[in-house]
Specification:
about 375 residues; alpha+beta; Butyryl-Coa Dehydrogenase, subunit A, domain 1; Butyryl-CoA Dehydrogenase, subunit A, domain 2; Butyryl-CoA Dehydrogenase, subunit A, domain 3; 3 domains; four-stranded mixed β-sheet; 11 helices
Length: about 375
């Protein structure tokens, strides 16, 4: 991915077309191509396939910077990067099919198993519907989770797998109608029956546990649950920074009350604290930390960061004034987008807290 300072064009395009993306519930083609050109899709792609083999810290910074202009564009850019990393778990045959024309292929994804798979010679026949697939309109391919029958297993033996399907195999049903993150176009993917060869699939467990250390650069082998929150927390971080800027620009035109000044200072501190937590989680992943305690702390920090960001943006909303909540005011869009983005399942506090507490108490039980 290009460095933070080289994101000018994608930020310009996202800012210029943010209102249209809200109205149309999808990103415009200009923004999609700017995201591709900025290198988000290729960021985690292995160098062998022409990718950047980038790290999580660089990706987090770029996503947050883009989200200050349009959180929906940043959300889709972050997912494009993440799906490029996930696609690296495909066998040789699948990677060749996906990146035959270069590493900038935009991959959409559905991590929650859905659909139906039937055993077929050399693979499975896959069909069904997958909801909330961000950026599906502009995708070139999709990785879809499905619980598939196991070859040579008992009739009821099934395992979750990710299956790669080309854009020509699926269509989009427009079902995304939310109050925030509207431009992500997280519509429903509908797939008519299509044959997916086994070489275009990989096991769900492989992604969750990661590859053995040393098999590839650390960011390409790290377990998914240690870093999955970064994908969605980055856009929320940028959205809250955008809200801070919009709030401050409006407040500078009038004399803010003491309560408003206090809210600004507190929100800025909470946002900075969240950024530090996310940066540490990204740094752990980039240096290859793989023990359970480090992974549990990283998941905790990602969820805690979003809790801080929600507190920050809601504190600003209480003191922003009625004008900031008008439909054409910049602040309210960042507020809605941050609040909507924070609802993602991987950002919820309770699962992260349970994992961390378990890992933390194990260390004391063993001492």
């Amino acid at each position: 991915m290009k460095e933070h300072s080289d994101l000018t064009e994608v930020c310009r395009a996202a800012s210029a077309h943010a209102d249209r993306a809200e109205r149309e519930y999808r990103l415009g083609s200009e923004v999609v191509e700017a995201v591709r050109e900025a290198g988000f899709a290729r960021h985690f792609v292995p160098a062998r396939w022409g990718g950047d083999e980038g790290g999580f810290g660089t990706c987090l910074d770029a996503v947050a910077a883009l989200a200050r202009h349009d959180p929906s564009a940043a959300w889709c850019a972050s997912i494009a990067s993440t799906l490029g990393r996930m696609a690296g778990f495909l066998p040789e045959e699948g990677r060749r099919a996906l990146w035959a024309d270069g590493p900038d292929t935009l991959v959409a994804g559905a991590l929650v198993p859905a659909g139906t798979a039937v055993l077929e010679d050399g693979g499975w026949r896959l069909s069904g519907r997958w909801s909330y697939v961000s950026g599906v309109d502009s995708s070139d391919a999709a990785l879809l989770a499905c619980s598939v029958p196991v070859p040579d297993g008992a009739p009821d033996d099934r395992q979750p797998r990710f299956l790669l399907v080309p854009r020509s195999a699926y269509r989009v049903e427009e079902t995304w109608r939310t109050v925030g993150m509207r431009g992500t176009g997280s519509h429903t993917l509908v797939l008519d029956p299509v044959h997916v060869p086994v070489g275009h699939t990989f096991g769900h467990a492989e992604l969750l546990t990661g590859r053995p250390a040393g098999e590839a650069p650390a960011p390409l082998t790290v377990p998914l649950r240690d870093v999955s929150g970064l994908t969605f927390a980055g856009p929320v971080l940028g959205a809250v920074r955008g809200a801070l800027s919009a709030w401050s620009a409006a407040a500078a035109r009038r004399k803010p009350s003491a309560a408003a000044e206090s809210a600004l200072a507190r929100a800025a501190a909470e946002t900075d604290a969240a950024a530090l937590l996310l940066a540490r989680a990204a740094e752990d992943a980039d240096r290859g930390a793989r023990d359970e305690w480090s992974g549990a702390r990283a998941q905790r920090d990602q969820a805690a960061a979003v809790e801080l960001l929600l507190a920050a943006v809601n504190g600003l909303a209480r003191t922003a004034g009625t004008g900031a909540l008008q439909e054409d005011a910049p602040f309210q869009r960042f507020w809605r987008d941050a609040t909507t983005g924070a609802t993602h399942a991987v950002l919820q506090w309770e699962p992260a807290a349970h994992r961390f507490a378990t890992a933390e108490l194990v260390t004391y039980a063993a001492s």
